[in-house]
Amino acid sequence: MHLYFVRHGETELNRQGAYYGAYDVPLTERGQEQAKNVGKALKDIHFDAIYVSDKCRTQETARLLLLENGSPACRLKVMPELAEINFGCFEGLTNRQVQERFPKLYERWCADWLDTVLDGGESFSMFFDRVRRAFEQILAGHTSAEDEENVLICAHNGTLRVIFAVMCDLAPLGTWHFNFEQDTYSLADYEWGNFTIRKINAGSGIR
Questions:
Q1: What are phi and psi of 51, to 5 degrees?
Q2: Three-state SS for 7?
Q3: In 10 A of CB 56, how many CB atoms?
Q4: pLDDT tens across 101-142, in order?
Q5: Rounded Cα gap, residues 83 and 58, in angstroms
Q6: Which residue of 4, 15, 141, 155 sits 20 to 30 Å from the alpha carbon of 78, by its own alpha carbon?
């Protein structure tokens, strides 16, 4: 199985440098162009399955990618578990705004980013386990196929970081080894229970 990974295109909150995961915001015009450019980079790749989070930014990215890709219509499989971490009371705020409004919580979060639960949100440990289970569920749905398959996962930077850490048998701390750009794709092969990472942040390179 060939696993393709794409981060959603730019949003206005990306531009602002804000914390957001649960907020559901659309792509900017630049984000739409990024999605189309990745579709061109993946031209003629036929996808057998496409998984997206329940956020409009991943679904819009996937649809625009498919239009440029020339792949036959493929129904998007929505998995809420692939969503970005929920930042709770930090949602929509920049780092400076968070420090000004929630100084004690921010200090506690920085000291224990793994297990601190933000008000109305989730801890990184909870997020890591959620995404890991979702990825395992995706794999379980395809391992019985006899033919090669191309599977696309269109999600979020944090989500893809967790997936790559899982593929490399890394603990949550290992997620910081990865970062995914909004105008590229990554590729890994999965065979006999093993992963081979072929590409990271390849493709259009239009930033």
A1: -110, 135
A2: strand
A3: 15
A4: 999 999 999 999 999 999 999 999 999 999 999 999 999 988
A5: 9
A6: 15
